[in-house]
From TrEMBL, chains A, B:
Main location per the UniProt record: periplasm
Organism name: Acididesulfobacter guangdongensis
InterPro entries: Cyt_c-like_dom_sf (IPR036909), Cytochrome_c_Peroxidase/MauG (IPR051395), Di-haem_cyt_c_peroxidsae (IPR004852), MauG/Cytc_peroxidase (IPR026259)
Keyword Iron set for record: yes
Ranges of residues in domain Di-haem cytochrome c peroxidase: 51-200
Name assigned to this protein: Methylamine utilization protein MauG
Mod. after translation: Binds 2 heme groups per subunit.
Job of this protein: Involved in methylamine metabolism. Essential for the maturation of the beta subunit of MADH, presumably via a step in the biosynthesis of tryptophan tryptophylquinone (TTQ), the cofactor of MADH.
GO MF annotation terms: cytochrome-c peroxidase activity; electron transfer activity; heme binding; metal ion binding
One GO cellular component term noted in the UniProt record for this chain: periplasmic space
PROSITE patterns: PROKAR_LIPOPROTEIN
Signal peptide, first to last residue: none
Compartments it resides in: Periplasm
Gene3D superfamilies: Cytochrome c-like domain
Length: 374, 374
């Protein structure tokens, strides 16, 4: 019975896929729906998932003691109920500091080739220690982090059990545990996934129309393809800058100088008016103003602010931004051109994007251990 | 007239000195009062004092932005009105961290060969960046410190004027400016200094009796000699440990682990029950439990807590501690033996110590600049 059912589903899916390729062909891009099927999240060989490691990683993710003054945890910016991102334009940061980029979501981050907007990490293990240690985010001395965790009996025991290491907690272990937890933050139940598996009623007509535009006239698919809808590449779009005045001018100033600091080769950094993006990492002129293509899974849930600096509010405005051909910036991607979409079509694309939303995450905060056994 | 007066003073001083040597001779130690005369504070050749640099250093000393969350400045622990130390047993520290040593005073620190209780810095320039960057004190990322200062127009201008460097503020400059200000924190007007300059009425009879004990029966002079009363050496005294229970047990634990961290060679760090002092820096067994001899100038003003861990309250109890021959500790200094002082004599030594106090510092907090010109 089961085999028969599976076969029927498979056949239905195949037929649907073929039809989709035909539909798409009319609109320039041939799309194989198979390419959207979500495989299990890749697990690195040197950091296998275990139940205990994931549990430990979850605790660390929620523990404020991972910040310098005990005021922020990973979950303070990657808020589970807000799609594991921050529901404000910019990331939270530590008192007396300010951040200048919008928090990327953790959702499906296990599928990404590049982490951070400028792609400076290429694994979740590499990513995890960055926000903990930077003075613009959690500002924890990485040496004190491991020293402090070691003095919490429950953690000491858990790290020993998970990593089979006696009397030591290392930065690497902390990063691996957090990454293991993050690899469990995967959205599998979206209307779109149901649709491509053969459930034609999973998406509304409007959303299906949006999908056709997405892979056709609007050509979103050029950058947003694959199971989590990203090419894992970097593009300059000309996203509007944030207009910061008065008190928040400090942000711009600090940003600039931080960029100068880590990029001592930059001349006249005071005249830099935009976030240089990928260029700050590669120092290649061709990477100027480029940011990585984000995943679109759960895109509705992670709103209302979008883009690397959170400057666009609401999905409709994101679509409008692309419809008018992006912003005005040197080095702009040649893929970004006016789309001539009607307002109706813009709404259809938004409807499709919302079909990439999974159910709300219902993650309860773990019980955190004390500094002394009790 | 002036020359004559000077000559008379000099002659009087010489006669007094000789008499003092005689007095001291009766009590074992021959003391040349000339050795107590305070010379101008030594200025390193590579960091000359300028009025502007001192002004800048004072501003930095009082600026909370030198801590990671903007809650602490140098002056938070080195409180001018409390003799440039902390009027609590232990140093203040950053939220979620705890310190385990008592704040040394800044007063006359320009004369010292070693800074910190374990002597890990040998100049004020070296010392200044330590408390700013350690997670157990101000917890400021040293890279962000210079970036942030650079974004404050007034500081940017001042650093340029003081250090003749364009478009840059370095850690070295910050340290040099703070050190320059600290070298101005010198106590010159004590009853004792007046006394050795020839004013016999500057000290009470009780204090003079105390001085005789100090250089005689009590033999304090063996370690506390010279203009600021220190041999600049390290001794193990067996100072009582702080009895920390419950919540504050964390302190002990963190201390131990911190020591382990910076001293990875230490085995069984969990079994360490005392601060290992100088040993943590030199790794020589002969330095175990040793701490540097502090200056005694302004010793009354910097109370009520004394010793490296602030465990002794009040000068009388400090004298009593030495009178009973210090504490019970391996590696204890052979200079520390029971003194057989009477209670009256203990009080006399306290009276002498108080004659080393200068007038209260009356330092007003400087006006601190804004992040934007206004």
């Amino acid at each position: 019975m089961l085999i028969q059912r599976r076969f029927l589903l498979f056949a239905a899916a195949m037929i649907f896929m073929l039809s989709c390729v035909i539909i798409a062909a009319k609109n320039v891009y041939a799309v194989n729906l198979k390419s959207f099927i979500l495989k299990p999240v890749p697990i690195p060989k040197n950091n296998p998932q275990t139940k205990e490691k994931i549990k430990l990683g979850k605790m660390l993710f929620f523990d404020n003691r991972l910040s310098g003054d005990g005021s922020l945890s990973c979950a303070s910016c990657h808020v589970p109920a807000a799609g594991f991102t921050t529901p404000t334009r910019l990331s939270l940061s530590y008192p007396t500091t300010m951040h200048w980029r919008h928090t990327p979501s953790v959702i499906d981050s296990g599928y990404l080739k590049f982490l951070f907007w400028d792609g400076r990490a290429t694994s979740l293990e590499q990513q995890a220690l960055g926000p903990i240690s930077t003075p613009f985010e959690m500002n924890k001395h990485i040496h004190y982090l491991t020293a402090e965790l070691y003095e919490i009996p429950v953690y000491r025991k858990m790290f020993r059990q998970v990593f089979h290491a006696k009397n030591i907690i290392t930065q690497k272990m902390v990063a691996e545990a957090i990454a293991s937890f993050e690899r469990t933050i995967v959205v599998t139940k979206t209307p779109f996934y149901s649709y491509i598996k053969g459930n034609k009623h999973a998406m509304s007509k409007k959303a299906i129309a949006g999908f056709k535009l997405f892979i056709g006239k609007a050509s979103c698919i050029r950058c947003h393809y694959g199971p989590v809808f990203t090419d894992n590449k970097f593009h300059a779009l000309g996203v509007p800058p944030l207009h910061l005045t008065g008190k928040t001018a400090k942000l711009v100033a600090v940003t600039r100088h931080y960029f100068t600091y880590v990029n001592a080769h930059l001349k006249n950094s005071n005249k830099i008016k935009r976030d240089l993006g990928r260029y700050l990492i590669t120092h290649k002129k061709s990477d100027m103003y480029k940011f990585v293509t984000p995943s679109l899974i759960d895109i509705g849930e992670i709103g209302p602010y979008y883009m690397h600096n959170g400057s666009i509010k609401g999905l409709l405005n994101v679509v409008k931004f692309f419809n008018k051909g992006g912003g005005n910036i040197p080095n702009k991607s040649k893929l970004i051109k006016p789309l001539h979409l009607t307002l109706k079509q813009e709404y259809e694309i938004v409807a499709f994007l919302k079909s990439l939303d999974g159910p709300k995450f219902n993650i309860t905060s773990p019980k955190l251990p004390h500094f002394i056994n009790k």
